[in-house]
Amino acid sequence: MSSSGIHWRLQLVPYYSSGYKKYDGMEVLEESCFENALHTSGSSGNEYFGWRDAVNCNVSELAELIKERFPRLLALSLGKNYKYAGWFVDMLGKAEAGELPLSDVNSDAFISTTGKSAIPSPPLAERFELNGRHFYFVEGRHLNPDDDWHTKYIDIINGFRIAKIAAFPAYPVDSKSIFEIGAYWEGAIYYISAILGYRNIHEFVTDADNPPPSSERWSTFFAIWNSEGQYEFLKAFLVKKMMGYPECKLSDDDPMQHWLRFLEEFESSLTTITSRTYRTHNPYFGGSNPLHLGLILSHLEPERRLI
After folding, report:
1. Which domain holds residue 117?
2. Angle, vertex CA 81, rays to CA 221 and CA 65, nearest 5
């Protein structure tokens, strides 16, 4: 409702585009890449979104016009969102019974037009910001049945790199699928090579110990691949591969002793680690390359590959 309580306002935005700039009691992304789907009854009456030809439309006809005239909005709204869909169905059921949802511009709570029932606020996405990058995590399976799990994350990573609000793949630690886990860690290998630009393991693990604090690319890497401390398993895998551990022999004054000690300490810690990463497939859980990582870089010349 407007502050006067006389007129109502409505704005359609993609689910993950809300939450950044106040606009008449609703928060929307400041620089949007979709159509401005704003309607106010005070200025437009029942000419929805200023469409004079929609005055006499029923619900289904208006929905078809929205799909036709807001293509970018609809494209950004595609996806699965069971929590929001559940809320919307419940709200729609109340609306069809005459309990239309209203919210004051100064409140996040919803009430019905009749005042008979309270309508809970919709479940909003939890959004984050790191070094200027707005993002949210996408839960669930990231692989489709026909996907090549070795290369799937190329599209995922390239997709969130160009998005205004990035969809980061959540760590699939609870997945029972070794392919989901393998694809996730292959994504890390691709990101290190293609986005961070590393071709040498030693240079990468050294820089990763002290990354530039203001680097959006580094903060993105750790947000995705160290959300639960799981990066240590990838680091150990890479160092092990770099060192040829445990067969490597080094003199006491060799600078690489630092990495040998890291591996020895990491190996010792495995007996006491209780993290969820240790209880599922990870880059270090057995053998020299248990997840067969590196095939995601097979299109590159050998000298341009991290592993």
Report:
1. 80-125
2. 115
